[in-house]
Prior knowledge:
Helices cover 44% and strands 8% of the residues. By secondary structure, the chain is an alpha/beta fold.
Amino acid sequence: MFCDRSTPPPKHRILKRLTTTLLTILTSGAIAQDATADSIYYIGNSLTDTIQYQTFADIVETQLSEPQPWGRHVIPGAPLDWIWDHPDSGFEESPYGYYPQALGEYSWDFISLQPFDRHIDSDLAAITRYVELAREQNPDVQVLIHGRWPRRDGDTDYATLWERSYTGEWDNTFETRDYLDRLTKALQAADLDIRDPILVPIGEVMYQLDQQMQQGDIAGYDTVFDLYEDGIHLNAEGQYLATLTYLAVMYDMHPETIDGGAIASLDPATKQAFDNTIWRVIQQQPVATPVTATAPDLAPSPTSRTPIPWIALGLVLTGGLGVAWFKWQKS
């Protein structure tokens, strides 16, 4: 769907937040601190820093009329298991802090997790740990897999690097389309009790742009390596591409209506090529479906008292939510 920046947030997002808050009340007897709107917490290294966090949030607030709280736990060069084992190192954002505080005390709509230089078993185990922590505050959390791109390797072209099959060896085939597809499918098959994780396919967008560039279809670019700042990091144009790919996935919208000039100044033809390629790749992805969660167990534990006031509040909210929803649908 396309998002009309003049309209309020879609009804399903508002209902989702009300439902999530109510579920937290009923199951825990307390209200989680909610980073409202389409909040996102990023975990990764300097490749995740390719996302222009605050500029992204400003674009969403000014052009889509939605606040976008964000936080991060970034350790340069670190894979996900290393970050898990170093919970108080790296870079974080106030007031959310490092991942133990951010995921343990706040409810996030999205968490972004960036695989890096590890095999599937390692990344699957690490991502599962982060999900279990985030799920306690928001059972409806949506996991995004940061779909990285390959590092440069001499004169080898992008397509050759990207199209390699994952071997399970230490040969950099964990930075390929095949690896990310396998990891995403493994996560979707795992019993994580959340929505199916979604891949943010930056590497695939870059692959399809590379095909156009090599055919001479995008003026001023010979290959997608023109978007690299060094052997692995991206320049401002690459940052535009990565950030707008996140926007397209999170808000399910074509980025053509978005002014991303605060990230990179692209001429109209280049912006159109980038935006159209992002949207085409997003549309090629399978749509993730939410899992069916079991009803929460409201029975008191032997060592605790039943939180009667909270249950009463929950029942009141349930009735109010039902009436509001009925009137909303009739309006």
